[in-house]
Amino acid sequence: MLALKKAAVLFVLMSGALLFTACPTQTNIAKINRNPDRYRDKEVGIAGRVTNSYGVLGAGAYEIDDGTGRMWVATRRGVPSRGAHVGAKGYIHNGFSFAGRNFGTVMEETDRRSR
Fold first, then answer.
1. I want to staple 103 with a disulfide (CB 3.0 to 4.6 A). Which of 2, 65, 72, 77 is the partner?
2. pTM given for the model
3. Where are the domains of the chain?
4. Which among 18, 39, 42, 15 is positioned nearest to 29, based on CA atoms?
5. Average pLDDT over residues 72-97
6. Which CATH architecture has domain 24-114?
């Protein structure tokens, strides 16, 4: 019985450690824009207000302003409306083009939360 309790505690600790290491780090846009190579191809989270959005057939891009800077987010799930408060996570890329427009440093969205 004691061995079973130890195994259960070990399982819970290992599961918790795995869960917390899988979460992307939330950072501010100014840090990403200052050194985009540090975040390239890494999953990060940002949150702020949508200032611009452009969508075509369910795909598009929207710009988030978190008070420290602005960043474009490319999505395949439709775009949020201007003024919406969103939290997005995704991968940072440089030199992104969409609909004939270049966006520089962009986040490719993997998940989004709205308030």
1. 72
2. 0.72
3. 24-114
4. 39
5. 89
6. Beta Barrel (2.40)
